[in-house]
Amino acid sequence: MQITIVLPTYNEAENLPKLVSALLSLPLDLTILVVDDYSPDGTGQIADELSTRHNGKVIVLHRIGKLGLRSAYIEGFQKAIYLGAEAIVQMDADFSHDPAVLTEMLRCLASRDVVIGSRYVKGGSLDARWPAWRKSLSAFGNFYARTILGLRLRDVTTGYRMWRREALQNMPLDRIRSSGYIFLVEMAYVACVLGYKIIEVPIHFADRRWGKSKMSLKIQLEAAVRIWDVWWHYRDLRRNNPPHEIKVKE
């Protein structure tokens, strides 16, 4: 199955070459689509160099500024579909997500529409170096979103996901409105409401190795407020679609 990794970047000059090397070393048929938001640290130029070096296995979309996670992923999804990807992956560019898990995710995609890399199922974990308050905030954010939206997913805020091409093609991407952290919750919620077959596989979420985290308390507080808007925005879909199927890898 031909896989395209959609990789939004902003100031990931230290991480990108190492991540590209790790991804291309996997025994998978994959292409890396870097969506760079005009990073001032030169990430875009590095991506271009990697594209030349790896003979088309790395493709770069340059954007004119920091336009946000939603538009980066939606542009990336549309480009990946246009290029013929059969499976499309979302993942962070900072090594928080282990590339090696992609092999198992692809195996699980054979019988599912979406595979979620989950920190909160059996076998999943968070970086041991995280302080207790940060782990508690992450766990509460998931509990809060799941409770408000009535989701059976254990990890609704994870950024590590693999989609079937057909699943993304049938998502109402033009209705997705969240532009930040809550984008991940909104996408998961819509997939569940539409009745997609979803499976969660355990992952270890590592703290970034290089560079500075873009997550802040302000972003998470904004997400808490936006959850209610997501719930209201899709009330028509809830009325017209069957219950969703969620499984956890055994």
Number of domains: 1
What is the CATH class name? Answer: Alpha Beta
List the uncertain runs: none
What is the helical fraction, as a range of percent?
40-55%
> What's the count of strands?
10
How would you portray this structure in words?
This protein has one domain: Spore Coat Polysaccharide Biosynthesis Protein SpsA, Chain A (Alpha-Beta Complex), CATH 3.90.550.10. The model has no long low-confidence stretch (mean pLDDT 89). The chain has helices at 16-24, 43-53, 69-82, 102-109, 132-149, 165-169, 182-193, 217-233, 235-240, and strands at residues 3-9, 30-36, 58-62, 87-90, 114-118, 125-126, 161-164, 197-202, 204-205, 245-248. It starts with a strand and ends with a strand. It is of the alpha/beta class. The longest helix is centred in the middle third of the chain and has 18 residues, at 132-149. It is built from 9 helices and 10 strands. α5 runs parallel beside α8 and α7 runs parallel beside α8. The strands form 2 sheets. The chain has an 8-stranded mixed β-sheet, sandwiched between helices. β2, α2 (43-53) and β3 form a beta-alpha-beta unit.
